[in-house]
Amino acid sequence: MLSAFRSALATPDLRKKILFTLAIVAVYRIGATIPAPGISYGAVQACSSQAQQEGVYQLLNLFGGGALLQLSLFSTGIMPYITASIIIQLLTVVIPRFEELKKEGQSGQGKLTQYTRYLTIALAILQATGVVALADRKQLFPDCSQPIIPDNSVYSLAIIVITMTAGTAVMMWLGELITERGVGNGMSVLIFLNSAARIPVEGGNILSNAG
Q: What is the pTM for the complete model shown?
């Protein structure tokens, strides 16, 4: 495996794609740790450290790469895109127009991709609104009394929702960049990163609990 990796780095074109992908990965992980504007970073850290001991929160962290409970810029993750892709695929069977687009080849697939993007943004708005509402009503971390959103005015909450939705759009763009200029299949790479980002933390929890 190491020899194959060295061979890939020795090839200029592959090396460029690998380095570009690693740069996108770094940007993605930075965005997953930066809190959204209007979020109390200290309160989130205190509350999430308490909540991570519960199974449901560990599951959320696993699928979100830890970004959801951090209420970060990328807290909505790529689940809106995955859900939108599944919905569009199902609609190609139900709606004749979508079925025609699928048969048109690359041009039709481009239109379906555009519809997927629009639906992703709509789902991201719904998800971000739900997360912000739970955080504002102290239901995201029920056992934590610290104010996660100090200013819960409508304007402040709207800014948080818009920022998280924009984060989903940026994640789609990063995934497409990996597909076009990186190692390919960018959304699958981001899905893998979400799971892989939790391996060190969960491994440490297993060691500390089970020895």
A: 0.82
